[in-house]
Amino acid sequence: MASQNEKVFFGSGDVFVSNARIVAGSQTYAMSSITSVKASVESPSLKGPLILGAITAVMLMSAFNARAGSGASLVVAIVLFAATIYWFCSMKATYTIVLRFASNETDTFKTHDRSIAEDVVRALNSAIVHRG
Fold first, then answer.
1. Closest Cα to residue 51, out of 73, 84, 82?
2. Alpha helix locations (H) across the chain?
3. CA triple 39-42-46, angle to 5 deg
């Protein structure tokens, strides 16, 4: 993928960083036009799991307090409780690599893996410094 004159700083999956260019997916950017790079973090919204958790808590309390209630409401509440826990545990932050140019900036690459985002930013910074 790299020519003989290119020094590769990072190459994994859909991302390739050299002293001459960055390739992210199907998009290629010239390193010479990049002025800076940063990683931004977007935390997932907890509204959904919290609302479902509150509904589940109400259902569990009413299922335990019902004197003549059927076991079906308890089963539904337990299933909802398990779904709430699964939903909450499966939520992950999104790390976005943002390239800045002289006149604008663009979101280049997104991942849920913090270490990959840090590696890409480190590689891009090294490529910018190498460029001089």
1. 84
2. 47-65, 71-90, 114-131
3. 160
